[in-house]
Each structure stands twice: as C-alpha cells, then as structure tokens.
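ok so dumb question maybe but i'm new to this and my supervisor (M.) told me to 'just get the structure for Pre-rRNA-processing protein TSR1 homolog' and walked off. so i did the thing. is this what she meant?? sequence i used:
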Amino acid sequence: TEQAEEKMEEEEAMLEKYRQERQEEMFPDEVDTPRDVPARIRFQKFRGLKSFRTSPWDPKENLPRDYAQIFQFQDFSRTKKHVFRQLEKEETDGAQVGWYVTVHLCNVPVSVLESFEQKQEPLVLFTLLPYEQKMSVLNLLVRRHPGYSEPVKSKEDVIVHCGFRRFRASPLYSQHTSADKHKLEKFFHADTAVVASIYAPITFPPASVLLFKQESDGAQNLLATGSLLSVNPNRLVVKRVVLSGHPFKIFS
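this is what came out, is it supposed to look like this??
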C-alpha cells in the first residue's frame, strides 16, 4: 500500500542518516575527491588555512543576502544593560507576580475568540522590549536530551522555544569554543554541547531554550535543552573539509 511504501522510504532515509552519522564519527570532515567534477571546481568556495585556530578570517566577507535584512548591535552587552536600566526606571505600581488579573482587549475579531475556544489553547500575553521586534542571528547553547536518540543534521527543521516565543528554524550546529572561528558540525552529537545559530527575533538573555523535532505523524519530541548564548551575526561558523582520495599519477 501507499502508507507501507512511505514508511519504507522513511526507514531507509533514517538508516542512511545513521550511516552518515557513523561515517562522520569515524572520519570527521573527510570528503572523497569527486571523480566526475574537477576538485578545483567542486571546492572552489573553500580556502586553505595554515591553522584553523590562528589564521585570519574577515567576518564581513561573502555574507549571505539575508544579512542585509537583519539587525546588528554595535555592543550587545551595553545595549542590554541600557534597556534593562530604562525598564527599571519606568516600572510603575502594576500587577505583581502571582496576582490574578483581568485583561481587556479591544477590537479583536470574534473569529479569533472562536478559534481559541475550539483549540482550547492558552492565550499568552507579553510585551516586547526595545529591539525585540527586529530580526537577527541568535546563538543558542544546547545539549541533546538523553531521551532522543535519532541522528540530527545541521539545517534540519526544528521547533524552537526561546523565552516566550515559539517558531520553526533550521539551525547550524557548531562547536562551542572561545576561538574566533567555530567549526560547523554536520550532526548534532549527543556527547557534547553545541551552539545552534538561527535567524530569529531578537531576545535578551537570560532565556531558556527547548528544541523539538516534529515527526511525520505530527508528534513533537524533545530534542535538546539549553539557553540563549548571544545575539551576534558576526559569529564565524566555518565548514572544514579534509580531502581524501587515491593518487592519480606519481612523478618520479
């Protein structure tokens, strides 16, 4: 049947992911030299580095087009302190934590109310701090949840809970180091914490993070937990490749 064929294809795809993850663990970053395309063309976007740790790299070089539409702070830590300082000054005698209050919303269509009544979902109310309506690059420090065992590749679609927000994203996973360059991880390994970089609305830390993987049947399984590390589009995530192959010709 059609369902059986779809299930078979899903199982084959999952087995292939397991194989790729195992291959990456055994031979990290190794790529076979292609036979049908010259290596100089296949890897023309790569460059040779004497040292991954110390060789210079311009963070403004060859930026994605989407970077023209995102917001970048000159000094994120300073801006955060200023925003919270202003918030403390503007605080008034409002509702305190633990109080039950009644909120009146004006000009809300009846269809919105009916939709919430049918879904029986809670209505979450929140206010935004300055800059939190803008988009930027969020770097999330996350660790795999022990209850999730399936392989997870970079750029795979996940559901992100960051602070009070929930949205879909396709994270790039990279090593969590103090260097100026961070190696891209093809897979989200279970034995170490990694940094997940995503396009998302700006959020000021501290903010807790949950990552969920949505399965084909609609179920959402907890993939990882962590916290918001930084809001920094200049964080360099570099893909490293180690070429492997056989000698084509040996000159004496």
